[in-house]
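If you are new to this repository, start here. Below is one unmodified record pulled from the training split, so you can see the exact layout before writing a loader.
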Amino acid sequence: MPFTLSHAAAAWPLRRTCLDFSALIMGCFVPDFPYFLLLWSHGFGGHTLLGMFYFDLPVGLVSLWLFHRYIKQPSLIFLPDGFRRRLKAGAFSFLPPARLALIAISILIGSATHILWDGFTHRTYWPYGHWSFLRLPVELPILGQSVMYKLLQYISSVAGLVLVAIWIWYWYRTTEPAEHPVAQPYTTAQRFAMVVILLLIAICSGILRAHEAIRTLHGIRPIANFTADAVITAISILVLGLLACGVFLRGRRAADYRNS
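And here is the target side for that same chain:
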């Protein structure tokens, strides 16, 4: 499958529309969430037209709420000062009903771009069975014999990440920094220590969980499976860590407010 984060590139052409941008990005990611929720590299559920409504939409709404309520603040705290000065930490609302409808539409459109993209990079979709081009054999360095749709997976994953990186760079260059950045409750040393600890936990968890792939498969498959499982697990643990930080920060703020 194309790398999940690469799918954010599909939101770029829609960035100036009336769609809610964070909901659109969430929709671009959410079909792959079974991989991360179940810590398994073979997902299900959200990659179908029906799944857009019974999985992508409800899970996308819940994930969006969790992000804005708990994950966004610690993410901003851990970012470098230049990014914090350019990002807004305002409250996110799902109301009134018209706004909720717009958010739902944004998630569904993002999900649709994900499924359309995957349609050309998986053999289980309509294009593979009807377009012989996707079934052409290709010889890949290191990986050996493969098929065109697999090559498109690799190319589109890299291209998507490059586009997202360029997009972030352009946004950074063209966005004026605020005079007063998001409040920073920790020193630079404290933030660095927390980031290192969180990353080490995520990386070690990914490696420990994925090591079985090396022992059970042969050829190039162990490397591919190990990498996929390690990345999926590491990202999942990282997000859970940010979620835990967000819950802690909100609890601490509530306690400070009660004691003031």
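Two things worth knowing about this chain: The beta strands are 137-140, 144-147. The chain has a mean pLDDT of 88.
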